[in-house]
Each structure stands twice: as structure tokens, then as C-alpha cells.
Design goal:
Layout (H helix, E strand, L loop, with lengths): L13 H11 L4 E3 L6 H5 L7 H6 L3 H9 L5 H4 L4 H11 L7 H14 L7 H15 L6 H7 L2 E5 L9 H9 L4 E3 L13 H15 L6 H16 L5 E6 L9 H12 L6 H21 L3 E6 L1 E2 L4 H7 L7 E2 L5 H12 L7 E5 L5 H10 L9 E3 L9 H14 L19 H20 L6 H20 L5
Parallel strand pairs: 1-2, 2-3, 4-5, 5-8, 8-9
Antiparallel strand pairs: 6-7
Helix pairs in contact: 1-19, 1-20, 6-8, 11-12, 12-14, 17-18, 18-19
């Protein structure tokens, strides 16, 4: 019997099935890090085609299509939507054992009730049937979220964003909590003085401050930080390739900032020092307002210029880096902890080799009364698959407290991506259920079941302090 995508998909024991169906399945979704458009939600956007709602902006699928030999014009070009969908359908059978294969079919089932496998032969009928369903108001942006039992969504927002779409959602009392996240990466991007100065000028306009020094840069960022706080934001998000172990005094930071504002680049070491020093100040702001900070580490971004120059960032040309994080991150966390400015922190690693070092490092800085104050973030991006999640859960179990883990997040730009939470929950329950059956842990549902429920929902709710805004 083929159990693929059955009710017991990925659940290979009675205990696993009990954990999933009785404790995990019904839990609402808290997606504390994603890249959904708040304006699509505020507008309650409707989508004309499956290509529009499912393929547009999804660089996971784009990478797979490129690997399958699909020409770029049929992926991101001006060809008709149906052609792009068919090219994706031709690619999908080649993605067996890639999580994309499972995600795609879960999404077709959970949102559209499609039980056929997507391939070239079924592409036309599936495309037509799903497009017809998209015409119905029940497939609007807000209803797509409600369909998956989503309770909280945190978008990713630049300090210069006016958050007007979030304001509209709050004013309307939308039943699902949609919160902004403060993402000040561009304020640190001093590598390209031309782009950086354009950004600082936009930050100056948004904050209403003339930014003429490093001190006024901090003042402008803090003003926007407060603006976000007033609109329900309770977390920041920071992407770094690597960290410096050197931090510059104020006088040197002023000189570096003045140099960049004058259009002159910094040296590589100077740039790393500037970024680390600015990040330190941003994290102190997070502490001052009681926020959670999420630090995403180790991605080498935009490495293929032919795609990046044509399409921009987040288009499938990023890769796993092999930076050494243990020492610089320990110095960074100590710099905050030593002055009592270390807030709740989630550390996302992209290289699985960093699981154990970061799990151990997180343990160093734990502190009551917050359970799991420093978190090893979920298996993310390239690690968001069965092996990556299992390795992450093993590291966290062996070196920390698995039961305090704040759970999964989609990190997605697609409103159809929420079955990724189901995927994680099934893998988690199967891992624990197998060990219960083997006698490697107590076969006690009253012990393990609530732990699963907490990791799927309650821990994140308590950690972030979410309530309807």
C-alpha cells in the first residue's frame, strides 16, 4: 500500500501517529519569520493564476527548474503563465526526495484538494482547475492564511517602511495577527558607498533627521525602532555573513561613517568592524524595548552575477557559507551580556556543521526567568528538509533542551507555504515516536505529547509574548 501523503505520511509508528494526530496537527501556526507582503494581506489580494500565487518570487522552485535545464525566460521571463507552470510540472517529477516534491503536493492537497501527482501529463487539468478555484473569494490572501489555521504572521520590514499596510490591518481588526519585523540590514551595507548613501538618505527622510554622523545614524535608527514598536513590532531580524571580533570606539566609527558618506569604500576589515559595531548597537535597542532578535548567519549571497544583475537579490543564487562562527559570536554575545544588554536571541545557522557549536554556545548564555532565552533557530532555508531538520533536532536534544525549542517558521514569500509547518510537525513526531517505540525514551504520551504541542505552538507564543494587537 502506498501511504504517500496519506493521513499517516512520514509517521512510521503508532506512537508517531498518536503524537501527530493528538498533539501537533490541530495546533495553530505561529510564523515568526517570513517574507510575505503585508500589503497583499491588507488588500486581501486575489490571484489570477497558479503561476502568480505559487511560482512568482519562489526562488526554491526557480533553482530546481534551472537545475532541470529550463531556460531562464520560462522561469522568470515574459512567457505566458501557463508555460511557466508546465515547465514547473515537467521539473517536479525530477525533484523526488527534494522537499519541494513533498511541499508542492501538500500545498496542492491542503489548499486545492488536488490529489493527483503533478507532472507534465496532469499539468493542464490541474492548472485549469486551480485557476478556477482562485476566482473564488475563499482563495483571497486573508482566506489562504485562515485556511491553514494561521494565528500570527511576522513579515520582514525595512526601517524606512511606513508600515501603512500593517496600520490598515490593525485598524480593521483582522483576526490573524500580522506584525512587522525590524530588518535594518541595509543600514549596515557599507560595502557599496553609492547604494549605501542612497539608503541613508531614505532613512533620513523616514526618520525626519539629518544623518550627518554615526551618532545621528543611530538616532535615526532608534527613532524608527520606536516607530515599529508602536505598531506592534516585537522582534528584529539581522542577516550577516560573518562577524568580526573587533569593535571600534565611537571616534573610529565616526571616521568610517564619514568616509563612506563621502563616497569612499572601507577596507574589508574596516567594513566588518563597522558592521559588527553597528549590530551591537542595534541589539542594545532590541534589549531596551524587550524585543526578540533573530540573527541569520552564514549565507553567501548573490554569487552569480548574471542572475543577480538581471533579477536582483533573493532569486536563487545564494549558497551555504563555511564561516567560523564560534569565536566571533561568543565575543559578540559576551559584549552584550557583560553590560546586561542581551535580549532573547534566536541564532539561525545555514551550515549544518554549525549545529553543535551554536547549540553549545546558546547554553552558555541561558538565563532565567526566560526558558530557552538563547535559541538555536529552526533548520532554515537549505536545511529545511528531513535530514536537515533531523540533524538540527538531534543537536538541540543532545546539547540543550529540545522541549524549549520555539519551533518552525516558513521563511517564505508564498501564501501557499504553510504546509511546511505540517511537514516539520510530522518529522518531529516521527523522530520522537520511533524512539518511544524503541524504548530509547519513555513511551509516555502524557510526557511527550505536551512537549510536542509546546514546540509546535505554545513555546513560540510565550517566547514572543504574542497576543492579538
Amino acid at each position: 500500500m502506498n501511504n504517500y501523503l496519506s493521513d499517516d505520511f512520514l509517521l512510521h509508528s503508532k506512537s508517531a501517529r498518536g503524537l501527530y494526530h493528538d498533539f501537533a496537527k490541530a495546533m495553530p501556526i505561529i510564523d515568526y519569520h517570513c517574507h510575505l507582503s503585508p500589503c497583499d494581506i491588507a488588500d486581501d489580494a486575489m490571484f489570477q493564476t497558479m503561476t502568480d500565487v505559487w511560482l512568482k518570487g519562489d526562488h526554491y522552485k526557480w533553482r530546481a527548474m534551472r537545475t532541470n535545464g529550463v531556460d531562464e525566460e520560462s522561469i522568470t521571463g515574459a512567457v505566458p503563465d501557463e508555460v511557466k507552470f508546465i515547465k514547473w510540472a515537467q521539473t517536479l517529477p525530477h525533484a523526488v526526495r527534494n522537499p519541494l516534491y513533498d511541499w508542492a503536493h501538500l500545498e496542492l492537497r491542503r489548499y486545492f484538494g488536488v490529489t493527483e501527482l503533478l507532472r507534465e501529463e496532469t499539468a493542464g487539468s490541474i492548472y485549469a482547475a486551480c485557476n478556477e478555484r482562485l476566482k473564488d473569494k475563499s482563495f483571497s490572501a486573508r482566506n489562504l492564511l485562515a485556511r491553514m489555521n494561521v494565528e500570527v504572521v511576522c513579515t520582514t520590514d525595512d526601517p524606512v517602511d511606513d508600515l501603512s499596510c500593517h496600520d490598515r490591518l490593525r485598524a480593521e481588526g483582522f483576526a490573524i495577527t500580522v506584525l512587522p519585523t525590524f530588518r535594518p540590514d541595509k543600514a549596515m551595507a557599507v560595502d557599496d558607498p553609492v547604494s549605501y548613501n542612497r539608503y541613508v538618505d531614505s532613512l533620513s527622510r523616514a526618520s525626519g533627521l539629518e544623518i550627518s554622523s554615526f551618532a545621528t545614524l543611530l538616532e535615526a535608527l532608534d527613532k524608527r525602532h520606536l516607530y515599529f514598536h508602536g505598531r506592534g513590532c516585537r522582534s528584529s531580524d539581522h542577516a550577516i555573513e560573518s562577524l568580526s571580533t573587533e569593535y571600534a570606539p565611537a571616534s573610529e566609527l565616526e571616521a568610517m561613517f564619514s568616509r563612506v558618506r563621502g563616497g569612499k569604500p572601507l577596507g574589508d576589515d574596516q567594513a566588518r568592524t563597522f558592521k559588527a559595531s553597528l549590530l551591537l548597537e542595534l541589539c542594545k535597542m532590541n534589549h531596551a524595548r524587550g524585543w526578540v532578535q533573530q540573527i541569520h548567519m552564514g549565507v553567501i549571497r548573490n554569487v552569480r552575477s548574471a542572475i543577480y544583475n538581471k533579477l536582483g537579490p533573493d532569486t536563487g543564487v545564494d549558497c551555504i557559507g563555511d564561516f567560523a562562527f564560534a569565536k566571533p559570536l561568543s565575543v559578540f554575545l559576551e559584549a552584550l551580556d557583560s553590560v546586561e544588554k542581551l535580549t532573547k536571541t534566536i541564532l539561525f545557522n545555514i551550515n549544518p556543521g554549525d549545529n553543535e557549536p551554536l547549540a553549545v554556545l546558546a547554553g552558555v548564555f541561558q538565563e532565567g526567568p526566560v526558558p530557552g532565552k538563547i535559541q538555536l533557530g529552526p533548520a532554515w532555508w537549505f536545511l529545511d528538509q528531513k535530514n536537515g531538520m533531523t540533524r538540527h533536532l538531534d543537536a538541540l536534544s543532545g546539547l540543550g533542551l529540545l522541549s524549549r525549542f520555539v519551533g518552525m517558521t516558513t521563511d517564505s514569500r508564498s501564501l501557499l507555504s504553510f504546509p511546511r509547518h505540517e511537514y516539520f510537525r510530522r518529522i518531529l513526531c516521527n523522530l520522537l515516536g520511533e524512539e518511544m517505540e524503541n524504548g530509547d525514551m519513555p513511551g509516555d504520551m502524557a510526557l511527550v505529547g505536551p512537549m510536542v504541542r509546546d514546540m509546535c505552538y505554545t513555546n513560540a507564543k510565550n517566547y514572543f509574548g504574542y497576543s492579538h494587537q
